[in-house]
Amino acid sequence: MAKRKKERIHQINHMLLEMANGNFFYRLERSMNKDSLEALSVTLNMLAEEIQEVMIHQGFANTNDTIKHIVQMSFILDSEGIIDMVNKHACTLLTIEYDDIIGIPFESLLTESSQTSWKKTWKTQLKNQNNVSDTSLVLTFKTKENLLIPNPCYLTTFQNKTTKERNTLITVIHHSKSQFELETDLKQRVTQFMDNSKQSTKTPITPFKQKLRLSFDDIKKLREGHDFIINNLDKKLPSLKEFALQLGTNEFKLKYGFKELYGTSVYRFLLEERLKKSQLLIQYTDMPLKQIAHTIGFKSFPHFSKSFKDRFGFSPKILRKKYLEKNGN
Hints:
alpha+beta; 13 helices
């Protein structure tokens, strides 16, 4: 018991060091204990996930070099599932030397629950007779320090021209849906501009409206509004006119600037953040669902449940049930 407690403290300490170094993709494995160490683990997981999202989303809206996908790890496996190649970044994330990874089974890098998902999906892929076959699944990796790295993985099985065996390419990616939507919108606007430019010169083209220029002071006030929303998800947001006055700006700059900086409206951002927080609370705490709805600012559970299902495609009850089954509870 004392040994296990010491190991958990060591993992928490390592997690804090990684976060201090700017690495927010690690997670602590949850236990069945209901003590202060488990509470701290849950808090750190939630904090790391929130900061990771902020680091990806903030400061990149509507720029030419937006972040869309981040490749974290890459592996190539032989027909037996043994690692033939791994990129250096994967070695760094897993805190394992390159020579120690090459030649070991890929599944040995995964948690027990992910090993089951991996074996089932990989065997199905190997049976595919196409030259190249693609699929995806979510896997959780375990580092040498027993920290967790959950992420979507893309699998490509292909026939090696030299050995005639089926090899597998695994790409582990952290991606941003919101950023993808911003880039898609930008591409659509560019395409629309090019289509307009190809029209006959006889066809009148509506001139573009000049964009409002946001000053540094404007951006600072908008970020204050962003932080206020994040820190007061349980409270009712005042009207946009009142909210703008509180920030020291006007309603037009608030609506326009928020859309430019964060790619969405103020109220849509509030709803999205409430639902994101509820997702974390459902997965990483034992808080009753009705209490979660109240904690994130919903007046009724039915309204929360409907909004949650509209956003994620399944109800809060289903998510809680799946997570408990996954963790053997």
